[in-house]
Design a protein that fits this description.
Helices cover 29% and strands 17% of the residues. The protein is of the alpha+beta class. The protein has two domains: 50 residues, no CATH class; 379 residues, DD-peptidase/beta-lactamase superfamily (Beta-lactamase, 3-Layer(aba) Sandwich). The strands form seven sheets. The protein has a five-stranded antiparallel β-sheet with strand order 4-3-17-16-15, with helices on both faces. It has a three-stranded antiparallel β-sheet with strand order 11-14-18.
């Protein structure tokens, strides 16, 4: 109330706080936002009721980028710019289980685990927080592929006990996340406040063969005759190997094939090769879904402007219900518009070094994904403050990640730095690689795309 224009104007006129408060309870004529064709309606209500009405609106953020070039294809900062000028694409919100793929990537590259490694299945205490192995509380355990598909908090807690929060945070920053990440174990469950656009950048390594790409908004500037005055191109860097990026894709495909994002297939009919991850924070405050195909990477967030407002427990299954439908409806329209050049039959190319690895045969991987027990019923992620006094001795001692990364991709001698166009052209040379197939049309400016509107199917 004290942040409203009405309060500030009346205070500027010298009106007492008591009289200002009284005026907020007097019905007046006003125009407010509404879900109709005009996106507004004339009504009569008290200013206090109007604040309550607008605060309860569910908001969204949605963005799409080309993971190879970094070009932003769509950007939706909110539900209506006239009434709500806050850009949620660049807002910091708790990311929930969408953070888990970064931790699982470290499990591959740094802890030496594989998709069929067994994790979870036991109670683990880190910084005074114990996650049980009891199925009724936090799931049990299973293969890494199973645990990511089902988003088991017990499994993420197990991985954090092996890897540690410091190394996890360092890796997240290496992947382009600039927001502050507290060095506490709860980041394994997504307690950090991170921007959607930063999460998308971190995810570029999965469809992009291990290369991290910074999003760009303008590809070139032309004069009225079409002469190019300036071109812009993002730099990419290799942060994980192609083999590890493919292993992560296979596990994240399990999310939509067998896990918390299963309705992507049976409800929304998206049958293309894709990977993704749902995310839900405490009390359904934030719902997330980030997914990718060989050609597009998109993310959706849904929640209220103020984090203290949330959906009632039992009304939603979290990110699967709150954010994933937006992603699915968008891709349905993308695939229906043939002019965009986005191929629903595009495939991820298996790296040559994995061709003879029996784990990655489709029938074998399906068995691996299904090997486990338990499911995540939107458990939430805890509050970072619950973990700040880290007196536990079972958190691993860590060196700086940049000095000890498993595959040494952060050493200049080993890490590849190539331009986005070089990376895309390299893929185009082999017509069998639909892995990075690009649409024919190249954007020249940032354009808003669509309006948008739970974590488990189990």
């Amino acid at each position: 109330m004290r942040e409203s224009d009405r309060w500030k104007f009346m205070k500027g006129d010298g009106i007492s706080n008591e009289n200002i408060v009284r005026s907020f309870n007097v019905p007046v004529k006003m125009k407010i936002f509404a879900w109709n064709s005009k996106r507004e309606i004339d009504t009569i209500m008290t200013p206090l009721d109007s604040i309550k009405y607008l605060k309860q609106m569910m908001h969204t953020a949605f963005a799409v980028i080309d993971p190879a070039t970094g070009e932003v294809k769509a950007w939706v900062g909110g539900i209506d710019f006239k009434w709500f000028k806050y850009d949620h694409v660049t807002a910091n919100r708790q990311v929930g289980s969408t953070f888990k793929p970064l931790l699982y990537t470290l499990a591959l590259t740094d802890a030496g685990l594989t998709p069929d490694s067994y994790i979870g299945g036991k109670a683990i205490t880190l910084s005074k927080k114990t996650i049980q192995a009891d199925k009724s509380i936090a799931g049990t355990g299973g293969t890494m592929a199973y645990c990511l598909a089902k988003s088991l908090n017990s499994a993420a807690w197990d991985l954090m006990s092996m890897i540690g929060p410091k190394k996890t945070a360092e890796f997240a920053h290496l992947c382009g996340i600039k927001s502050n990440i507290p060095i506490v174990p709860s980041i394994a469950l997504g307690s950090a406040d991170i921007q959607l656009i930063e999460m998308l950048r971190a995810y570029t390594m999965f469809p992009n063969r291990g290369f991290n790409t910074e999003p760009i908004f303008i590809s070139r500037i032309e004069d009225k005759n079409g002469n190019v005055l300036q071109s812009f191109e993002t730099e990419t860097k290799q942060v994980i190997s192609e083999a590890d990026s493919y292993a992560m894709y296979k596990m994240m495909q399990g999310v939509v094939d067998f896990g918390t994002g299963g309705s992507m297939r049976w409800k929304y009919g998206i049958e293309s090769e894709m990977g993704g991850k749902t995310g839900t924070t405490n009390d359904n405050t934030d719902g997330w879904f980030i997914g990718y195909t060989p050609q597009l990477l998109a993310g959706a967030w849904v929640g209220c402007d103020d984090p203290f407002l949330h959906l009632r427990n039992g009304w939603t299954n979290g990110g699967n219900d709150m954010a994933m439908p937006e992603w699915a409806y968008f891709m349905q329209k993308v695939y229906a518009d043939k002019k965009l050049g986005i191929d629903p039959n595009a495939q991820f190319q298996i790296p040559a070094e994995l061709n003879n690895n029996p784990i990655y045969a489709d029938q074998n991987f399906e068995a691996i994904v299904r090997k486990g027990q338990g499911s995540d019923y939107s458990q939430g992620n805890g509050d970072a403050g619950d973990y700040e006094n880290n007196t536990q001795t079972n958190v691993p001692v860590e060196s700086e990640f940049s000095k000890n990364q498993a595959n040494d991709y952060t050493n200049d001698g080993d890490k590849k730095h190539i331009s986005a166009s070089e990376l895309a052209n390299e893929s185009k040379k082999d017509s069998s690689k639909a892995h990075l197939k690009k649409p024919e049309e190249k954007i020249t400016e940032k354009k808003p795309a669509i309006n948008a509107k739970k974590e488990s199917d189990y």
